[in-house]
Design brief:
By secondary structure, this protein is α/β, with parallel strands linked by helices. 39% of the residues lie in helices and 14% in strands. The relative contact order is 0.11.
Length: 282
Amino acid sequence: MSGAFLPTKIDEFSEETCRRIKELGFSGCFTRFTDNPLETPHERAHRVRDLMADQGVRMYQAIGYRPPLHHPDETVRKEAVRVLSAAVRFNAALGARGTHTGPGSLNPKGAWFPHPYNWTQQAKDQLIKSLREVAPVAEDNEIHIGMEGHVLVTLDSAETMRDVLAAVDSPRVKCDLDPVNWITRENIYDTGTAIRQMAQTLQGFIIGGHSKDVQIENKLVLHISECPTGEGLIDHDALLQVVEGIDPDFPLLVEHCSTDDLPRISEFLHGKCQELGITLLD
């Protein structure tokens, strides 16, 4: 699980945090600490790493701070590479399996919001250049970089994600399958087929999955909105079977929900897995 009750400051992560994760039926988490990776001593990450090991909870993913890796200004792009490289090293010290990030956006409102530059060839080329520069850091620290796509940013489809990752060509720069982010009007009523097609396109590049849900609203012109897992149109039978079929050890990370949502989501996913004959980690 991610978000919800997890603290945003690393020093606030505690034994109680681990206990709550386990009590809700999750084997680990995805943290989004706001501590600056360029300035935070690794000893503070080691405390959390050792605490989680003692409590039997896994750190599946940690935030990469989403710097603008695709930026047209080389000074800004190089600083983005420096930030992500520091995050990769910090997350390795944290004991995380992977570092999560996206390409960034020139939209001043946020890294996942639209801007016409996001879909240009220059943005794609700059992103590939940045990931090639960060890849050796991930390889040296034996930690994944898990890229995330979205229709509003440079990685706007499974095909674009595949092309970028193939160009980077690193065993440590891969992606998470997050189908909600690529759902469109054309596939929202057949998300199972869409998920299987995404997985086929990204064969060899997926290192895990993200779970949330999506709705299409009765509004003009077109409104496709996120919602918590199990409340929308995502075919979770297909998603769970796809992730299990790629590698049974891969994690599925629940995103974008409240603490109050988590008990229902946990029950929903455990129930789905039982129906599908998928064994969950303790």
